[in-house]
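Exercise 7.
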Amino acid sequence: LDARSGSNYQLNVGGNWTNQGSFTERSGLVVFDGTSAQLITNASLETFFDLQFSNSGTKTLAANIQTTDDLDILSPATLDAGANFTITVKSDWTNTGTFIPQQGTVELNNTSTGSINGAGVNNFFNLTSVGPNNNLNTSANLAGTLTVTSGNFETTGQVLTLTSDATNTGRIASITAPLFTGNITMQRHIPGTTTG
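Solution. The predicted structure, written as tokens, is:
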């Protein structure tokens, strides 16, 4: 399937996406807009250019995915990372709906500036920042690990909370040459005790 060079058609998908061949994304937009559950399946990695999730159905990953440009989760849509799949975004991440990260990874991997945008609080498990600059433009919770492999990750005055519960505690991996700029809120889970 080819989005056709020069036209960059928009594809609207109301059901499941199963790729057992090849998809050439060009510079087109793929919109998952079903009102019931949708599944995105590929034997390896599925690549889109611009990717958008809309309408009430939960969209669940059954493969790693990446976007060459933007990824948008629009209210009231829900995107579920499924069995801890990785989402790579090479430009901007915008979430005004719901993202269920499971124990997967969202990687911002760009050649200029990428950003995390949205309404309310974005929830992540693992978050990886690659590229010259990635900015947090909305509040976010992190239950796993923030890894900054190159460039600068900046919170731009937003609240990044490293959450902690009985199962997971958020952390920032060791940073050497790359930079982290901004404030964090750190939680620490304290197990309860019983007396009797």
